[in-house]
Structure formats: structure tokens, C-alpha cells
Design brief:
heterodimer, A: alpha+beta, four-stranded mixed β-sheet, four-stranded antiparallel β-sheet, 13 strands, B: alpha+beta, 2 domains, six-stranded antiparallel β-sheet
Chain lengths: ~210, ~220
């Protein structure tokens, strides 16, 4: 789905070449300009690095394992989620993502954020994924393995998959006109459940754990 | 762009050791920044994250003094990360204190000696764009030195013209100025000659100026 089709389908506002999309947690302003080709609702062979601290709660060890949707929460919400577990609290808006042992934790609420997230800050409010250009699957996995060899990344795991349907907006890192195999960073913003009728489980279900050890 | 800004722990560690931190550039970031450069007190440093945990906060960063030239080579996949981290004055800090870098535990956390920062490595930073920014900044610096050399050269010529002993002194000074001109012109062609330009700026001019002063006595 093109960005124009997304705007039409979800009736997002589009002014001064900026679209304001509605996610589950806030509104995000994205400058589109002349870069409409950077945006899509689908993506193939994308990598998500699985956070080791969350892997302790929701372990993944074989390709048949279901990847828990919490792994796909946007960066800022993921941080709030881990912080709340550390302080033994449950953020009520994220209730469905908590493990069973947290059911007795004290309940708190996310401060209602009515501010529109500006284009320059948008990446901090997205889920990060990595794709490639001009690279084979083996090259992609080999590069991911190299990252996992760095000490700070050693406990991370890798899930790879496709994004399908019309539930999110994917923004692809700028296109370069070379034939060199390259990694591409993607920002993903899932449209709010009210509009997309889907939760983060619909994103997670397209991904499989890949053993890079 | 700069996701170091999102994490206070990074600043807590940086400000333990460094003053006047500016020009922070993240060079490798996957879920959190792993490699970044910055300027402190006029010198460039590279920070490499050895450990980072959000849940029970843990952060350990290895620092080395570096140069823009080396960072450009790293971003161009011309030298390994290990090569740039091998420096005479490394340091390592965690959230509590400065650590002993010779400790085997720290050394074991450094990258393998075949890790290149290639465009294929998953990275939320566009290393080609970052490299181009550093190259542009370096070129500005070189032009600044070059212009400075040109200006000082004109001053010297003016001084020597004013000199009473101009006839006898000119030959020697001319040959020095000629060498400056030749060297500075070729230096503009490549950033590799930056050190050479700096040397002209600092040392050779001093030599010419002293000679001129002597002749003018």
C-alpha cells in the first residue's frame, strides 16, 4: 500500500507534505516530501533483534516458537515496560504484554500524551527493523552474526520475517544508487488498534527465530 | 538522529571523565548506541560500549583518543574496529567508577580483530552519510589551515620587502617560501597531508620568520 493509499484509507491528515499518523500510543508527524517511495505497509526479510532481558521472560529457542508481541513494542514503550517491571508495576494500557507473575503488581497508567511527536523525534517512537539491499539471505544472516559477536550484543537473538497486511507504516532508510550489499534500517509505526483492528501479535506472527550461534 | 540523547546513562558515564563534550556522532547503533565519537577539550574520542543493560541498569564504555582521519577510515571499512581501539591511552568507565583497562575481563570484551564496520552490518546509522559529514568537516579544517598559511606567507613577503637587507636575504627566504607553496598546494589535494600542513603552519613558518628576523637585524 502506498503512502497516498494509507492516508486515504485511514483518513490521516496530510498538510505541508507531512502526514500525521495515529499509533496505539500517540500521534506521529512524518515528513514525506518527495520521498513517497520510502513508505510502504509491507516489507520482506526484515530482522528484529530480540532483547535479552525480555528473552528471560519470554524465551525463544527454536524456529517453531511463537515470538511474543512485546518484542515489537516501539522503543519508548518498550523502555517504559521494562522500567515498570523493575519497579514492580503494571502499566494498565500494556496489561496484555505482562507475564503472569506480574499480575499482582501495582497498577499505573501512561500519562496521556496529546502532543504530536515531531518528525525529528519520530525514530524514538518506532520499532526498529533491519533489511538489506543487493544482499543474499546468507549475507544478511552473516552480517547479523557479526553484530551478535560484539560483547554488548552477545545475548541478543534474531528473528526474521515479513510485514504483511495494512496495519503499519514502514519507513525505509534512504536509498543509495550502488550495487554494494547494504543494510537498511526501517522504522515501523503500527496504526492504532481502533483503526487497524490488529495488535502487535499480528506483526510478531510474521517472524521466526533464526539460530545465529 | 542522535539516540544517545535518549539515554541519560550514557551522559552520566561520559561526564565522569570528559569536559565540554560536543559533536557527538553515533557510528553504530542496534537497539542502543554501540559505537560513537565525540569531541572533548578539542580532542576526538571514540566510545565503544562493552556492556549495556536496561532492566538492571548496567553500562560499561571503553574510550580511546582518536582522529577524524581514523574515523573516516573506519567508516570506509578500511581499518578494523579493533585497530582503532588499540590506542596508547585507553580508558574504561562504568556507572560507578573508572576501571583498569589492562584487566583481562575488559580486554576479553573488545571486538575480534576482523570486525569491519561495513555497509552490510545492521545499523540504524547511515555510515556513508556520517563519513561524508566527517570528510566535509575535515576539508573545512584543511582549508582553514591552508588559508592561514597563505596569509602568513603574504605577511612574510611584505616584511622582507620592507627589509633593508632584502637583496642578500631574499634568496634564502624565497626558497623556503617556495617549498611552503609547493607543499601547501599538493596538500590541498588530499586530506592525508593534513599533518604536513599543520607542520608547515606551526614549524616551517617559525623557521622562516626567525630567519627573516635575523636578516632584518
Amino acid at each position: 500500500m502506498t503512502i497516498d493509499e494509507v492516508i486515504a484509507k485511514y483518513q490521516f491528515s496530510y498538510e505541508d507534505e507531512r502526514v500525521i499518523i495515529k499509533t496505539d500510543f500517540e500521534k506521529v508527524s512524518i515528513y514525506i516530501g518527495d520521498n513517497k517511495e520510502k513508505y510502504d505497509t509491507k516489507g520482506e526479510q526484515l530482522i528484529r533483534f530480540l532483547n535479552p532481558e525480555l528473552l528471560e521472560i519470554y524465551p525463544v529457542g527454536s524456529t517453531d516458537d511463537v515470538i511474543h508481541p512485546t518484542f515489537f513494542l516501539p522503543t519508548h514503550i518498550f523502555k517504559d515496560f521494562l522500567d515498570s517491571l523493575l519497579s514492580q508495576e503494571i502499566i494498565v494500557e500494556l496489561k496484555k504484554y505482562y507475564p503472569e507473575y506480574a499480575s499482582d503488581f501495582q497498577k499505573v497508567s501512561i500519562e496521556n500524551n496529546n502532543e504530536i511527536i515531531q518528525n525529528k523525534d519520530k525514530s524514538g517512537f518506532a520499532t526498529s527493523l533491519y533489511g538489506t539491499e543487493n544482499a543474499t539471505f546468507d549475507q544478511q544472516i552473516s552480517a547479523a552474526k557479526q553484530i551478535l559477536e560484539l560483547n554488548s550484543m552477545i545475548d541478543y537473538k534474531v528473528a526474521i520475517g515479513n510485514i504483511e497486511g495494512e496495519v503499519c507504516l514502514l519507513e525505509k532508510g534512504k536509498r543509495n544508487k550502488t550495487s554494494i550489499p547494504k543494510s537498511k534500517h526501517y522504522n515501523l509505526w503500527k496504526f492504532c488498534e481502533e483503526l487497524s483492528r490488529e495488535g502487535f501479535d499480528s506483526i510478531a506472527s510474521g517472524f521466526k527465530f533464526i539460530d545465529c550461534q | 538522529m542522535n539516540n544517545l540523547m535518549l539515554n541519560n546513562n550514557f551522559f552520566e558515564v561520559l561526564t565522569k571523565k570528559f569536559n565540554f563534550i560536543r559533536k557527538i556522532e553515533v557510528l553504530l547503533s542496534v537497539d542502543f548506541p554501540i559505537l560513537f565519537s565525540f569531541n572533548s577539550d578539542g580532542k576526538y574520542f571514540l566510545g565503544y560500549v562493552l556492556e549495556f543493560k536496561r532492566f538492571n541498569p548496567k553500562l560499561e564504555i571503553y574510550f580511546v583518543e582518536t582522529t577524524i582521519d581514523k574515523l573516516i577510515l573506519l567508516l570506509g571499512s578500511k581499518i578494523t574496529l579493533d585497530e582503532i581501539l588499540q590506542s596508547e591511552n585507553p580508558s574504561c568507565i562504568n556507572l560507578e567508577k573508572e576501571l583498569d583497562v589492562s584487566n583481562k575481563n575488559i580486554q576479553n570484551k573488545l571486538p575480534k580483530n576482523d570486525f569491519y564496520l561495513t555497509p552490510l552490518i545492521p545499523n540504524s546509522i547511515d555510515i556513508e552519510k556520517t563519513k561524508n559529514l566527517l570528510v566535509a568537516s575535515e576539508e573545512r579544517y584543511i582549508k582553514f589551515i591552508y588559508n592561514n598559511i597563505e596569509k602568513r606567507k603574504l605577511d612574510i613577503i611584505q616584511n622582507s620587502l620592507d627589509s633593508k637587507s632584502i637583496k642578500s636575504s631574499n634568496k634564502l627566504i624565497d626558497s623556503d617560501l617556495e617549498s611552503i607553496e609547493l607543499q601547501s598546494v599538493t596538500s590541498l589535494e588530499s586530506i592525508k597531508n593534513k599533518e604536513h600542513l599543520e607542520e608547515i603552519d606551526k614549524n616551517i613558518f617559525e623557521k622562516v620568520e626567525k630567519k627573516l628576523m635575523f636578516k632584518n637585524l
